[in-house]
Design goal:
This protein is an alpha+beta fold and 321 residues long. It has 6 helices and 17 strands. The chain folds into 3 domains: 23-127, Immunoglobulin-like (Sandwich); 134-224, Sandwich (Immunoglobulin-like); 226-299, no CATH class. Strand 5 (63-68) and strand 6 (72-73) form a beta hairpin. Residues 7-20, 222-226, 265-288 and 290-321 have low confidence and may be disordered. Bound molecules: 2-acetamido-2-deoxy-beta-D-glucopyranose.
């Protein structure tokens, strides 16, 4: 009886060992893909020799994405066998040609072989970069401005942080809302109300799920900040300069005009003044040469002159005589 049990156990173990050696498995590896790029879920059937693959069913969420049942059945052209030689290599990896965020999930791979049926699982994670954030501003006044920063198409969900000109973190004063699009990607919209323009320009920075900065945007044009105010004051300055130079020009013109209209009067006065000046008088009116001749009549008018005249007359008389 005991020997019968022993023989039975030996027989069972003999049966079991070849069975486990015969057992077909499929080994799969999860991976991470990037939106817009090809992704691959690696799966290999083992043992790789001494069996024939009869059927393969790649499924996601119960939906077939790739089927081989004697011939390849492309339900979706985006999904293919990564190895064109898969029937020989037994590498039945799934290639996703143009990865979408919605492709993320758990995939199952059911394989029917000449040595039995097996099933494997692999997870595909998808990452998508956020678009370059866009900033808009409104309600701009001298001491406040409302800013909005929007980035979309990212996955998984990220965050928007705000910094001012000096790099101060203003994120606590802002509010970010997240909406999931139809393709599962996220749109981030962050608002910063009543920002102080004196700290501008502000930057909004989009961080991905790994807390890495993906993009940033600074204040859009026209700049609702100090620079804009400065620019305004520059315009005002320029205006002031133009008006100022106009006024100066007018004043100069007026002065010249006044000087010109006063000139004859002044010249008269100067002339009079000069003529009254004894020194100037001598310079300006040098004794004319005839004055010396004029002295003669004076001399002649003098009593001495009459005698001289007499003498002259006498001399004339003498001459006549
Ligand atoms: C900015 O502030 C937010 C909110 O307090 C914080 O989560 C984030 O880590 C800060 N960012 C940096 C770069 O310091």
């Amino acid at each position: 009886m005991a020997s019968a049990i022993a023989i039975c156990l030996v027989v069972i173990s003999f049966i079991t060992v070849p069975l486990s050696a015969d057992f077909v498995t499929v080994e799969c590896q999860s991976s991470t893909g990037h939106s817009g790029q090809p992704s691959k879920l690696d799966c290999v059937v083992k043992p790789q020799n001494d069996l024939k693959i009869l059927k393969v069913f790649w499924k996601k969420d119960g939906q077939q994405v790739l089927t081989f049942d004697g011939s390849i059945n492309p339900e979706n052209e985006r999904f293919q066998f990564a190895d064109t030689n898969w029937r020989t290599s037994k590498v039945i990896s799934l290639l996703v040609k143009d990865t979408k965020v919605s492709d993320e999930g758990i995939y199952s791979c059911t394989v029917a072989t000449t040595r039995g049926i097996t099933k494997g699982y692999a997870r595909l994670d998808v990452k998508a970069k956020y678009s370059q954030p866009e900033m808009t501003s409104k309600d701009i006044t001298e001491d406040r401005v409302d800013l909005t920063c929007v980035a979309s198409g990212g996955y998984p969900s990220g965050a928007i942080h705000w910094f001012d000109r000096l790099g101060t973190n203003w994120t606590r004063s802002t509010e970010t809302t997240e909406t999931q699009e139809e393709d599962k990607s996220f749109q981030l919209q962050s608002t910063f109300l009543s920002a102080d323009p004196s700290h501008a320009p502000y930057r909004c920075v989009v961080f991905n799920s790994e807390w890495k900065a993906e993009g940033e945007e600074t204040m859009p044009d026209p700049l609702p900040n100090k620079e804009a105010l400065k620019a305004d004051s520059k315009h005002i300055m320029a205006g002031a300069v133009v008006i100022g130079s106009l006024i100066v020009g007018l004043l100069v013109a007026l002065l010249i005009f006044r000087r010109r209209s006063q000139r004859p009067e002044q010249e008269c006065f100067d002339y009079d003044y000069v003529s009254h000046d004894p020194e100037d008088g001598t310079v300006l009116n040098p004794p004319p040469p005839y004055q010396e001749v004029d002295q003669n009549p004076v001399v002649l008018d003098s009593p001495q002159d009459s005698s001289a005249d007499k003498k002259l007359n006498a001399s004339f008389g003498v001459a006549h005589g």
